[in-house]
Amino acid sequence: MCQLRPRPLCQRLGSLLMALQVFLMAVLPAIAAATPATVGAPPPTTAPTTGGSRPNFSGPLGRSDERFHEELVVRPLSGDHVNTYFQFTTRWHFGKKDNLYHTQLTPRVIAEVLQQFDVKELHIGLTQGLWRYETWGYPIVEATSGAEMWAWFSGDNLTATEVDRQWGQLANVFSGVLCASLNFVDKTNSISPRHLLRPQFMPANRPRSVRYASLPREIVCTENLTPWKKLLPCGSASGFASLLNSGHVHNTKYHSLGLKVRMLCEDHLEDNCIVELTQTANLVYDLRLFELSNNDFSLRRLFGMGLNGFCELAESSKIYVQRNEQGQKYSLVPQPTQEVKSIRGGHLVVYAVYDMLEQFKDPGERLFNIAWLTPKNENRRRNLMKPTLPPVTVHRYLLGNGQERGRIATEVTNNHYEALPILVQELVPWYVHAYLHTLKIRRKPQRVNEYTRRWLPFKLLHYTPGKQRELPSHLEIGFTLPGQTSALITIDVDYLLLKWLEYPPDANHGHYIGAAMVSTQLPMGRNYTALPPEGHLFEHSFNATRPNYVLSLHTEALIVSLPTPDFSMPYNVICLACTVVALAFGPIHSVATKVIVVGRQASAPKNFVRKILGKIFRRNTVQVRAAAAAAAGAAQAEALRGGGGGRGGGRTAADQPILEDLREEEEQEQD
Amino acid sequence: MDAKFIKLLLLGGAARFYFCRTSLGTVIGNRVEFATPLNSHKRMQEGIFLLQNGIDPYQGDVVHETPLILSALSGLFRNFPQFLPVFYILLDIFTAALLYMMAQRFVRKKQDQQNVETKEYATDTTELQFSGSDKMDIPELVIVAYLFNPLTVLSCVGMTSTVFSNLFLAAFLYCLTKGLLLPCLLILAFETVRSFYPVVLLAPLLLTFSGRSIRSGFLISLLFAACCLVISVANFFVLNSWNFLDGTLGFIFYFRDLQPNIGLFWYFFTEMFEHFRIMFLITFQLNATVLYLLPLSIKLRREPLLLATILVALMAVFRAYPSLGDVGFYLALLPLWKRCWKFMAHGFVVFTFFIVTLSMMGVLWHLWIYAGSANANFYFGATLAFSTGQIFLITDLLFAHVKRDFCLFNGQKILIDGEEAKIVLK
């Protein structure tokens, strides 16, 4: 949009966002001080603005200018996989905050959230499956398995508690909007990342705070897709959204729904703002699951139906099909009308473009379909073409066995020949104790199998220890990873025993530890497809060469099995433990309160039955009651009062009279 | 200080040093029976690491050691980590030496007392009286029981901070027998701020020092409170925050970490219904502190050291995070009451209980945590039985003392109608 129509605000924002991107890197260069690829970045607070003339709002972009775009990207991946990426972008230049009441294309709930809270940027991801960086390259939008959410808050007099409150409410709002379990986001699983997440809203140079949470256990399903589609202006009735049928979407190997909202305001003018809502759906199909005789596929095959047109409210509606790399072997039917070559960071990508507005120019109902055909002579053979390895790949696993303790190992591999700055963020939930002093980064050259004893030093370390039932542990580390080297970050953890009611219904399924986030900046654009921070459409990533590219990756999530109690016997445990306490209480009580008496010991009867009877009726043992309880008490009290001045030097005063009483009584008995 | 004493100390040190050089140290350091959340070496390292990196250790709930100890050991941990085992061994040997001297002094005192009272004793009670050889035997037994008890050896090898607790307790007992009021108060206050339960040892302290006057007792209590305050403030100045109070005392009182240990708390509060939790928490903490304090103080008012022994033992059974190191400590105090042993009836039962439950603990833990073929109940059963064994031992000692006291003055054989009478509590 920016490229097509010259608009001062757009340009202004563009340049500002460039500054933002520079700002984004502000931390990474600090790590990569020794890395030659890094350019020195200005400090964040001096993010330059192209001051001067005020933007002209009376132009074509009116005060309530609101535009909607839909895009679909199809990228064949290696190993017979196809990545389809939907992006629906609503961009609304609403101006003043009051105008947010009058929504048109932007969903009302988004506008209300922006009214209600001081949130400036919001990301929500609902994902099922694992993106495989080694074979698929990098995704256009990063997401971790399960639900993930982060938001930036900025406003006047915003305290940390207020941010926490708003964050909780925000999560609850979107829990309802997306029918996801985001309502479980609270203090116990939220952190405020210090370095890894950088803002993409504007103006970002104000005091701001960020909250991040992930729910790796969340299962994404139809119930999330339907409300997600309802946020679109055309719903699922027409346009690309009509392709997203849950039956087909959830058959994929990986599917990720995303929602991103950001505010772009002028630096000093709060009433000149743009809200940008980007909804993304990223799917990876496995062609082998279609059980075809060859690797041909089509939109109809992937989504169950052809495309019935474009969303009438959309400004643009385009399909991009990657033609080079894995897409090279396919021929397209129908032939594309247009081809775009994009060179980004020295990496060439060719896209065929289908403009739906053109395709459906003529009236009449029909379905549009694109077919990818492989040459006839190529039989049904696995796609053996090796993909180029992405510059940075990450993995994570657990070491150790048993339910007592373990070690989380995060492996970052730099396949590039230059050193790269790496930032790693770990969110360790409270039911796992992490020991920071065991944090080690070991390194190995790529071709070697064993990790050496050589340790990499940290350039940056931020740690907030966790607290049971209150706070997760939050760790961010930064280091420079030399070229062609892997780093293994290990930290020891203890698994805690929880209260019996704190276990989820299937306690032995295990507890999740969310994915670690790894961020770096690449000097080149190989495999890099993410949108530049200043752009909002997929086409903005074409030819978007920059000095470097911020890459953010997610590792696998982990599952740990905590020790479990037996859930069936709370009463038994309470009874048994109390019994043992009583075992101590009884004897100590009697020692402390009773007095010694001497009894006559009759010869024990030989017969077992009589012994028992004797025990019951006490016939055989003539007990001599020495002192009545009152007398004993009196004696005790007397002893207390007058007892030994010379600590133990005194005669046990209590014993003597009792024995005398005894004897008297004995005499009486004898009489 | 005779040669035998030195030899024993060296031998004890050598035994510990030998085990330190094996892999046993890390194994024991990870065993829940020895390393609880309060005393584990790993948590101490973590605390010192956090402290050195400028992170408040009490913000999280891994570290429960007091700031003073953390900062005191900080230099040692950072600069000479290889000498740490030696440091712990030295402390443990020092504890043993203190116990030895305490025992010597105690026996001497007992003998003095005996000489005064000797006319009042019954005739056939020589075996109940401290004999001349006890002056050598009892301290020796004490030191052997401390130095060569596997529980204390392993506790030291695992570098648990129970070594410090034992040192402080031994120093307290030593000062108690020696009659040094101020060191006594300071040590007790320090240990109280560290681990809360030793506050009950104020009772033997008062019995020893206040004589019969309530006024001096009150003054000493005030002094003790002042000492606690001073030590808390000193702790405060390490980090300039009061967070440590919640991290140490609050953590003990509220029993936040349910990690299994040899005590009664962990499974009880794992399985507790949430709305009863506070009530039972208070009940159990009262049980571990003041419940037995008053009756025992009245009963044992003439034997402050026995009171201290019993209280230390009860503490080891009923505290929130007991470890086997605590058990080892009070077992070493038992030889002081050698002259009561005659009346201890459950010796064999208790011994068997200890052996069986301690070996079962390891097995059942493995079955529960690693093999997955047992569940928590099994381990809980073993810890429950172990606690029962300890309780038998403690009550047995109490009964034995009461009987000895009685027999000492009334003779061991009381004849009624020419028949031997039976001594019972009524």
TrEMBL record, chain A:
Keywords on record: Signal
Which stretch is the leader sequence?
1-34
According to the record, the residues making up region (Disordered) are 37-61, 639-671
Q: Where is the composition biased (Acidic residues)?
A: 662-671
Which residue intervals are annotated with compositional bias (Gly residues) in the record?
641-651
Domain of life per record: Eukaryota
Which terms does the UniProt entry file under GO BP?
A: attachment of GPI anchor to protein
Q: Show the GO cellular component annotation of the record.
A: GPI-anchor transamidase complex; nuclear membrane; perinuclear endoplasmic reticulum membrane
| Matches recorded under PANTHER family | GPI TRANSAMIDASE COMPONENT PIG-T, GPI TRANSAMIDASE COMPONENT PIG-T-RELATED
What's the name of the protein?
GPI transamidase component PIG-T
Q: What species is this protein from? A: Drosophila ananassae
From TrEMBL, chain B:
Name its pathway: Glycolipid biosynthesis; glycosylphosphatidylinositol-anchor biosynthesis
* Membrane topology of this protein: Multi-pass membrane protein
Q: Where in the cell is it found?
A: Endoplasmic reticulum membrane
One BP annotation, GO: attachment of GPI anchor to protein
InterPro entries for the chain: PIG-U
Question: Out of the domains of life, which is the source?
Answer: Eukaryota
Q: Which UniProt keywords apply?
A: Endoplasmic reticulum, GPI-anchor biosynthesis, Membrane, Transmembrane, Transmembrane helix
* Statement: the UniProt record of this protein carries the keyword Iron-sulfur: no
> What's in the GO CC field?
GPI-anchor transamidase complex; nuclear membrane
Query: What's a Pfam family in this record?
Result: PIG-U
Supply the name of the protein: Phosphatidylinositol glycan anchor biosynthesis class U protein
Provide the species name.
Answer: Drosophila ananassae
